[in-house]
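Researcher: Here's a chain I'd like modeled. Treat it as a single chain, no partners, no ligands.
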Amino acid sequence: MDRPDAPGDPGSTDPAGSGAVAATYCATLVDEWSLGGVEEAVVCPGSRSTPMAIALARHPGILVHIVHDERSAGFMAVGLALESGKPAILLSTSGTAAVHFHAAVVEADLSALPLIAVTADRPPELHGVFAPQTINQRNLYGDSVRWYCEPGAPDEGGSPWWRDLARDALVRARDGLPGPVHLNLAFREPLLGAAGELPARAENSVERQPARVGLPDEDLARLIGLVSGRRGIILAGVRTTMPSDDDQESERKLVLGLASDLGWPVFADAASGVRVRHPAIVSTFDLLLRNERFASERQPEVVLRFGGLLTSRVLNAWLISSRAVQVAFDRYGRCPDPDRVLSRSHPVSPPVVAEALIHQDISPAPADWLASWNDADKRARVAVERGLVGLGEVTEPAAVMDVLAAVPTGGRLVVSSSMPIRDLEWFAAPRDRVVVHSNRGANGIDGVTSTAIGVALGSGAPTVLLVGDVAFLHDSAALTGLRSRDANLVIVVIDNDGGGIFSFLPQAQEMAEGEFEVLFGTPHGTDLRFLAAAHGLAVEQVRTRAGLQAALAGALHRRGPRVIIARSDRKENVGVHQRLNGFVAAAVESRAV
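Model: Modeled as a single isolated chain. C-alpha cells:
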C-alpha cells in the first residue's frame, strides 16, 4: 500500500482531461475482460492503482475481493484459478507492493494456472529521479509470465487498441499453456476522473483455442504394443483430471477404466482427481514399497505417468531401480523428469490417452498382477488402522485421515506442502466426491491459507485447509479480514512448534540436537490460538484424536471461517510413522493381519 501523492508532485495537473482518459481506459479493459469470462478480481489498496481499482469495483460483472497484503492477494488469486480454471485480475499499486506478487506468479506459472497481474506504475517522467515508491517494474517476474506488456500512460489516441490489449492479455493467460501475464500500467495524476463512452465492443468474442485432441496414429500404435500383456502401473499425479466437478467425474472414469482394462494398479496423488474408491486404486503404495522384499518381487515392466510427480521418494527410487519403460502424458506438455527416466513424453491430456487405448484390442496383464497389489493394499490398510489403536493423542497420520473423512460430499480439501501432503498420500484412504487442491507447482509453503480462501470463495463449497504451523504463520496476513468474508472455511493447523518434516531427514540423526533445533527444528513458540483470536476468528485447540474429530464435525456444522489447532510433538510424530511402517511391514511379511 502506498501513501497519497503529495501536492506538487510532477504530473499533478490534468491536461486534456487525463483523469477521464485513464478512467475510460481502465473501464474498457475491465469490460473486455468481463466479456471474455473473467468474473473476479483481487485488489490491494493503493493510490497509484486508483483508476483500475475503481473500474473493477464499478463493473457489475466483476466480484472484487479486497486484500491488504499483496503476497496473500496473489495466492488468493491462485486459489480462485485452481477452483474455476479462469483467470482473476490481480491488482497492486506501484513500488515494492508489486514485488510481493512474485511468489504467486511463480506458482501460477509452474501449475499452469491463468492469472492477469496488473501493477500500477509511475509515468516515465518519475523514473530515474528517485520519486517515492518508484522502482523498476519492467519484466519484474522474468520468465514466469507468458507475456509482459508495458503500454505506457494512456492517451485518447490509443483508444482503438484498448480492447485489443485486454484480449491479448486474456488469451495469453488462458489459452495454450495457461499461466500468468503481467500488465504494467503507468498512470499520471490526477488519478480520479469520470469514465466516458467506451470504445465499441468487437463483434466476435474471444474463443478458447482447442487443445490437442489425441496421439498421432504412429504414437498410439507404439503405445499399444508397449502396454499389451505387460505388468504395468499408472501413476496419476497432480491435475491428471480437470478440477471442475463435471469434467473430473467423466475424466476419472476414463483413467480408471483404462486401468481396469489393462489389469494395472493406479498410484494416485490426492490432488489428481483419481484417488477414489476403485479396485485399481492402491493407496498404501508408499508403505508397501518400504518393504524391500515386497518391492523387489513386484517390478513393473511399463509405467504410464499421467500429470505431475507424486511426493513419495520411496516410489521414485523404486521406479528407477525397476528399469521399467516410463512414458508420460500431460495436457500442457509439462512432464517432469528430474531422474531422467522417461522414454517418451507427450503433450496430450491423460483422459484423452485413456479413451484412445480403451477402444483398442489390448491384452491385459497377468491376472495375479493387480490381485497381488489389491491384497497387499487391503492388508496394509488394516495394519495402519491397528497401528493407530491406543494412540489417543493427536497423531499426524491419523489427522490427515480424519480431516479427509470429515470433508462433506462435494466439499474441498486444500493441503499444504511439506508434511501434510505427504501424510495424505501415504496414509489417507481413497475418498469419493471431494476435490483436493494443493500448491504443487513450486511446492512452497507460502500463501497456503490465502489459496484455501480463494478456493472456498470460488467454489462456495465447504472447504477444509490442512496446514502446518510454520506455513500457517508464514501466511498469517491472510487472516486479516477473513471473519468478514463469505468463506465456509475450516483451517486445521497441525502445530508441532516448528519444521516437522526436517525430523525425517538425515540432519535430525547426524547433527547435535541443539544445533538441529536452531537450524531446522526452528521452534517459534507462538500460541496460535491468540493469533487466530486477534483476527476475531472462532478457534479451538485439541490434543486428542477424538477431540479433533468432534471439533471438525462442529466447525463444519457451524459454517464460516473457523480455526482448529491440533497439537502434535515432532519427535513422537517420527515414532508414530515408524510404528505404522513396522505394522505394515509385518502384515506384508506374514500375509495376514
